[in-house]
Amino acid sequence: LVVLSRQSTIKFVHASRGASPGWGGGRRLQKRVGRRKALRMLLLGESVFGEEEAEQLDYADYVAEEGESSLDAAMRLVVDPILNLPCSQSVRAIKRVVSVADGDEDVIDTASGRLRYVATDATDDDSMTKGYKNTAVKSEIDAFLQVWGGESNRELIEQTRASLKDKKT
């Protein structure tokens, strides 16, 4: 679930950092906002600004009240009600059912209901994604691994660090 403050800005900086989304983020964005908007957000860094645009795109599930932070709103609207449910196993089961129906069955650990992480100490590219049955997730991870840590990615991250350092001084 996505909870935003009224002044929230959502922006993806992957392309400007020489990277791509990984671990399903691009696929989830495309499902939420559609192909054309997802491409504009990912390639051009186009943002979603504030409550009105987030609601138009159906990006946010909840928007904080005036003066309320998104964290406080998330606690009030999502976390506290879920914590007050009588059975944590049913929460996991419901998340699993929705994940399977959404095609994320290989991204969610069926025992814990949590996002499944892939080992990072793999030596060959295929071992980073083996076990993923979902072609879209595997393709996104493969694309991410091709650019992450590459020369352009490292240079752009260093430029960003230098820019942030300059702003502090």
Task: Give the SSE layout.
Layout: E1 3-4, E2 9-10, H1 25-33, H2 35-44, E3 48-49, H3 50-56, E4 62-63, H4 70-83, H5 88-101, H6 125-129, H7 135-147, H8 151-168
Parallel strand pairs: 1-4
Antiparallel strand pairs: 2-3
Helix pairs in contact: 1-2
Task: Describe what you observe in this structure.
By secondary structure, this protein is mostly helical. About 55% of the residues lie in helices and about 5% in strands. The protein is built from eight helices and four strands. The protein has helices at about 25-35, 35-45, 50-55, 70-85, 90-100, 125-130, 135-145, 150-169; strands at about 5, 10, 50, 60-65. The chain has a two-stranded parallel sheet with strand order 1-4. The chain is globular.
Largest sheet: 2 strands, parallel
Distance between the termini: 38 Å
State the secondary-structure class. mainly alpha
Percent of residues in helices: 40-55%
Tally the helices. Answer: 8
Q: Which residues sit in consecutive blocks of at least 5 with pLDDT less than 50?
A: 117-127
Which strand order does the major sheet show? 1-4
What's this entry about, in short?
The protein has 169 residues and is mostly helical. The protein has eight helices and four strands, in the order ββααβαβααααα.
Sum up the structure in keywords.
169 residues; mainly alpha; 4 strands; globular
